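Work package 3, deliverable 3.1, input record:
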Amino acid sequence: MASTAIDSHLEGLGGSHGGHHPSLQHQFDSLEQQKESSTLGMWMFLVTEVMFFGGLFGAYVVYREKFHGVFAAASHELNVTLGAFNTAVLIGSSLTMALAIWAAQLNKRKQVVLFLLLTIVLGSVFLGVKAVEYKEKFDHHLVPGPHFQPDPAHASAALIEAGDKAQVFFSLYFIMTGIHALHMIIGIGVLAWLTVLSWKGRFDATYYNPLECAGLYWHFVDIVWIFLFPLLYLIGAHAR
Amino acid sequence: MAEQHVTSVKLYLAIFFALMVGTALTVGVAKVDLGAWNDIVMLAVAVTKAVLVILFFMHVKYSTRLTALTAAGGFLFLGILLLYTLNDYFSRGAFLLDVPGK
């Protein structure tokens, strides 16, 4: 008796029973409103991410001005070819991420899974290249700390002359690219989870908010790299 | 449910190629010594690439005004952070004290 009364009450609120979409949460009036809320919430999070990386970019700008020539000499130690290759890989992964959402909007379930997997593969290639680059920096004693000792066989005269000031550049290099790589690892984890859900058919043209939000995050990480690449790799490209 | 905007594959590919051209351009220009212009060109290309990603890959061009305003707000705060930090350092002459290699 009582339960019937409650059920009919919920029914009146557009509640538990009836023809609403299975992915529509009760607090939202419509799928459209739900999508708008999740997109807005994701952007709010990305604003905090902009400020998080912004602090590091601020530190970079200040020290870049203070140690102008030193930064150019230190930047010269980074591998521009690998950096440019990784930039292309990451832009490619943004394309496949965007195409995964395109496929979801057209109800192409298998293509959603395919494009998500491609995005994960490209993200992993990026991290693999980054690992190669990190190892090279360790081998060349360019990691800040007690063992920082640019080798005259590899490093330019300007870098050796710069001494400890060059450590500021490499500290920023490792912190900024390291936190960027951490974001990529988290992104790959999220995409792997969404690939499983996509395979199970959780998303279609009417509901793909998690894909949209993961896409926003992935593209944001791409944008961070779009700035990191020239600021870290290219400022010393014409100097020697 | 209202109409949702579906970006065509053609447009996504066009944005992808524009981003790749921007990357090639920024690497090419970096190898030529343009003095202070190197940094300006580099940042101009990076900002252009970022705007393309935000507008098309992140769908801000087709989003509601509230979402677009939130996105723009983030970069406004970033601008305040960077400008006031630099204002402080420049006005105290911090960059004039140490100029090796300049």
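DSSP finds three helices and no strands in chain B.
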